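Sequence in, structure out. Go.
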Amino acid sequence: MAGILKSVSEKSKIDLTKKRFAIVVAEWNEEITEPLFQGAHEALVKLGVKKKDIIRKNVPGSFELPLAAQWMAEKKDIDAVICLGCVMQGETPHFDYICQAVANGIMKVNLKSNKPVAFGVLTTLNKKQAMDRAGGKYGNKGEEAAVTVVKMLEI
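Output:
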């Protein structure tokens, strides 16, 4: 969904100048996760969030995203959390275990915290597929994750 912001009104239904967002970014596969972060950050700013109200926290890899998301969601002054990571298929079943654990962990943080927590984790077969989703021909999934939490706050 390249250019998702074009399908979203420039003004949110809520006052985003009074909201704070945490973006938790996996350092593993940084050449992918950094563009995802840039996409999420730029989307929030375009939607009206003040730059000072966007807090970034880095974690070593995608497996650590759920715990960091939980810590951020526990903060009273954080309204939503965006999790960004990238797991690429390898030669062992490690990929399956990590993807399943991260997806379940982030979903549990959503339900436990009662706050929007976006799953902006790419689970691809290779680096090309990841690049295509981190600002390439399929848009930027970080941007989509930011729009997702804003839409959830509007509900």
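Check: The first helix runs from residue 30 to 46. The CA atoms of residues 27 and 60 lie 5 Å apart.
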